[in-house]
Amino acid sequence: MYGKHFASMYEGSMVGSGAVVFAVWGYVIAKMEPDVEVGSQVRLNPKLLETIIGDPQAEIEEAIKFLCSPDEHSTTKAEEGRRLVQIGEFDYRVVNGAKYRAIRDEEKRRAQNREAQARFREKHQPTKKPKTAAAGAQPRRVKIKDALLAGAAAVTTTDGHENGLRGETEGSTVAEETA
After folding, report:
1. Which of these, 94, 115, 101, 100, lies nearest to 40 by C-alpha position?
2. How confident is the model at residue 137 (pLDDT cuts 50, 70, 90)?
3. Cα separation, 71 vs 63, whole angstroms
4. CA angle at residue 47 from 46 to 52, to 5 degrees?
5. Strand order through the sheet with 33-35
6. Whole-angstrom Cα distance, residue 77 to residue 167?
7. CA quadruple 68, 45, 86, 25: dihedral positive or negative?
8. Are 46 and 25 in contact (CB under 8 A)?
9. Are 67 and 24 in contact (CB under 8 A)?
10. pLDDT at residue number 89
11. So what's the pLDDT on residue 128?
12. 10 Å Cβ neighbour count for 98?
């Protein structure tokens, strides 16, 4: 699994709680699993975390206790600001796990939508009109100024004559551009 560390984690009420708390919380974020009954949960075995994180088991247990404690300064008031609620010997409910997972899913959905829109635009890109008009087709009317901006060397005027653009005024109306 993986998880996102939001910048607010480093600026909120956990500031000053110590490196071990942040290490355990990082482990929680990476390992939490969605659960139908509790939202999100994680398994925290202090003996295992001692080896993974590299700090004494007692410090790991204190960090878990801190994460399970009420936090009156937390921006989330659910469960009195607790981050974890113990539901088994090593099992914990991650209070905001479902909320932050939904944010990740929303970002993933937006990225998928951007990619799908890019594929759609690529597939449905307008094709360039042929330089010669089909029989019976009406030429598209353009302004001389637009033809000049597009780099046209000549245009076919409304009376059917091909003319260079030299001497035409910018406000003049002409028919479809020619090569």
Report:
1. 94
2. low
3. 14
4. 85
5. 33-35, 39-43, 91-94, 84-86
6. 75
7. positive
8. no
9. yes
10. 95
11. 65
12. 15
Q: Which two tokens stand for residue 153?
A: 């060397």
Q: Which of 7-16, 46-55, 144-153 has the lowest mean pLDDT?
A: 144-153
Are residues 53 and 93 in contact, defined by beta-carbon separation less than 8 angstroms? no
Q: Tell me which DSSP letter residue 153 carries.
A: S
Q: What are phi and psi of 7, to 5 degrees?
A: -60, -30
Give 168's DSSP letter: -
Q: How many CB atoms lie within 10 A of CB 97?
A: 24
Distance CA 45, CA 64 (A): 10
Long-range contacts of 81-90 (CB under 8 A, 24+ apart): 81/13, 83/25, 83/28, 84/28, 84/42, 84/44, 87/38, 87/41, 90/43, 90/44, 90/45
CA angle (90 as vertex; 94, 45 as ends), nearest 5: 105
The pTM of this model reads 0.56
